[in-house]
């Protein structure tokens, strides 16, 4: 399904000057009128009523009906989009976070969207995303070290792109194990939560920090992850992710 604005001034006011826009979701509001969700020229999520637009293509074959997402009201959403970015009941479609912005790129790619620099410089910028991860790890370092106060050693995280698994030379007592890639999300989350924790009364904070770190790392991977590994040395315990022939290391290490 596609729409276009009837009035150029209205189109200009919402930064939607192209000839037509693909509808991501179509829903019926409480007044019984249809509302259409689309992405404007800056790929911001926008909604418009039928008063301002005309339908240029009414084909909804790539949309599925999910009234449960609209509190029982009529609700249709692009099937591929919702595979990439799950939408919960009553939640607005939102791609403001770097994770969600990255995950929906394949939708933009499939439907030949024009990609603006504002989106490309963040969601498609690996250096930008690695910088976010590094900044986050710097911020939580004192939090992680707090539980070792008074002890003889400390633990911390480091994230980086590293050598291919095939190039790793194992020393005595090192280990390298390929893990089940279908369990990637669960295993990475467990790896983070095992080491990113504070005292018991701060469990909720630890969980929130762990979720944030997972989302920042996962935002790097737009396409399917090929393989995952556990790589351990005396000082280091690494979770290694293979994606598009590149290798990404989340390293938990200790010193003291």
Overall description:
Strands 5-4-3-8-7 form a 5-stranded antiparallel sheet. Strands 9-13-12-11-10 form a 5-stranded antiparallel sheet. A 3-stranded antiparallel sheet has the order 2-1-6. Helix 7 (184-195) crosses helix 8. The protein is an alpha+beta fold. The longest helix is centred in the middle third of the chain and has 20 residues, at 126-145. Helices cover 31% and strands 28% of the residues. The mean pLDDT is 92. The chain has 2 domains: 2-116, no CATH class; 126-255, Protein Transport Mog1p, Chain A (3-Layer(aba) Sandwich), CATH 3.40.1000. It has helices at 8-13, 79-84, 98-103, 105-110, 117-123, 126-145, 184-195, 203-218, and strands spanning 2-5, 21-22, 25-28, 34-39, 45-49, 53-57, 63-65, 75-78, 154-162, 175-179, 227-232, 236-243, 246-255.
Can you describe this structure in just a few lines?
The chain is an alpha+beta fold. It has helices at 8-13, 79-84, 98-103, 105-110, 117-123, 126-145, 184-195, 203-218; strands at 2-5, 21-22, 25-28, 34-39, 45-49, 53-57, 63-65, 75-78, 154-162, 175-179, 227-232, 236-243, 246-255.
